[in-house]
Amino acid sequence: MGKVCAIFGGSRGIGKAVAELLAQKGCRLAIIARNLEVAQTTAHNLGEGHLALSCDVSREQDVQNTFEEMQRNLGPINYLVNAAGISRDGLLLRTKTEDMISQIHTNLLGTMLTCKAAVKSMIQQQGGAIVNIGSIVGIKGNSGQSVYSASKAGLVGFSRSLAKEVARKKIRVNVVAPGFVHTEMTAHLEEDQLKKAVPLGRFGEPREVAQAVVFLLESPYVTGSVLIVDGGLQLLT
């Protein structure tokens, strides 16, 4: 039997690309998103033996119910990938408080809740791997994304600390920090201008980031690390 992997935000973008690579490796996947119909379509396209679930990661009971469902249908979780995230870009002075809260709850609190649930399961089976999807703006910052940047920067500190907490339990925790990648979240950006700051001269593709995620899931001696996948991005203004 292949390893069991839960991918939150697995119905599209980077999460979907990770699912496709892991399915090729024989993993059994739980594709988890707020939109159940889209998650079901993604799971169906991956072939047989995969599960689609709906979950609001900012709600602890939703997360607990999701892990119980995965346990019943797929078995204990070996891998966790947190790719669910939202962005509400705008200058801080123009950002509504509810938009601040929603970004922090989804991007940071949601990851904390899924990691907490996954670690409980992984301890019982004496091992596992977690990869959280951050962002280059959580490291370098970016004008107009102060709240989003804060949520992703928090993700780095959380992941590095959690890695130290669970290493003796043979559980590894790492972060992938993408730069500009072709996803729905970046569709509104002015690509011609932004890619000038990328030495490779282009936006990345979800599959290219997914390859970094799979590398970290499978690497037995890498934990507490942040792998930047940004084409050598030099400056955000």
TrEMBL record:
UniProt GO cellular component terms: mitochondrial matrix
Q: Where does it localize?
A: Mitochondrion matrix
Keyword set, alphabetical order: Fatty acid biosynthesis, Fatty acid metabolism, Lipid biosynthesis, Lipid metabolism, Mitochondrion, NAD, NADP, Oxidoreductase
Where the record annotates domain Ketoreductase, the positions are 3-209
Signal peptide, first to last residue:
none
InterPro entries in the record, alphabetically?
A: KR_dom (IPR057326), NAD(P)-bd_dom_sf (IPR036291), Sc_DH/Rdtase_CS (IPR020904), SDR_fam (IPR002347)
Among Pfam families, the record links this protein to: adh_short_C2
Gene3D superfamilies in the cross-refs: NAD(P)-binding Rossmann-like Domain (3.40.50.720)
Mind listing the GO molecular function terms for this protein?
oxidoreductase activity, acting on the CH-OH group of donors, NAD or NADP as acceptor; quinone binding
UniProt record, GO biological process? fatty acid biosynthetic process
Name the pathway it acts in.
Answer: Lipid metabolism; fatty acid biosynthesis
Q: Which family does it belong to?
A: Belongs to the short-chain dehydrogenases/reductases (SDR) family.
Read off the PANTHER family from this record: 3-OXOACYL-[ACYL-CARRIER-PROTEIN] REDUCTASE, SHORT-CHAIN DEHYDROGENASES/REDUCTASES FAMILY MEMBER
Name listed for the protein in its UniProt record: 3-ketoacyl-[acyl-carrier-protein] reductase beta subunit
Organism listed in the record: Dromaius novaehollandiae
Q: Which gene encodes it?
A: CBR4
